[in-house]
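During the reporting period the student researcher (J.K.) took over the structure-prediction task from the postdoctoral fellow and processed the backlog of single-chain submissions. One of the processed entries is reproduced below for the supervisory committee.
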Amino acid sequence: MREILEHDARFVVVAEAADAAGAVARALAQRPDLALLDIRMPGSGLSALWEISARLPATKIVMLTVSEEGDDLFAALRAGAHGYLLKDVDPRRLPEALHDVYAGTPAIPRALIAVMIEEFRDANPRRRAIADYDELGARLTSREWQVLHLLASDLSTAEIADRLVLTQSAVRAHIAAIVRKSEVENRSEAIAQFRARSEI
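J.K. obtained the following structure tokens:
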């Protein structure tokens, strides 16, 4: 990757890192215009993405991965990624894709755009219930809806935290807010209420 980019006069590679902690440290030291991260790098590319995005909001970040899983794509986008490229990208295309991101155009493979469209056009009953935004819908935030949806999908607090790139304490805070706003006694009742709404 470095050789490809260094042969393009538009790029200067200022640093490399072998793991997430190193990527964050070098990004903070160099403050690059663009960062390219491997989603499966030791220490978690998503963790590095979250940290760099939060501390260097002007840096455009592109995830490089072998994963075509929608969950990885959405986790990267939620954490602040400006692009998501697969490792089998044509080497001749890579500099153009990265320059597009630098110029403000997201870089996502066509196959994954289809995954995104399918996600947002999903018309199953649960999503229709959420979209209806009845009295409860008006009270819950979009993040609380996400947490409630994942709870109803039988994910644990730890799994939800990993999926949404949140701390477990943040997830527990969202669950507490959901229970309070739903006017129920506990998370089990909130999940049961949500599932009942989804059958409408």
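The committee noted the following: The beta strands are 34-38, 60-65, 83-86.
J.K. will present the remaining backlog at the next meeting.
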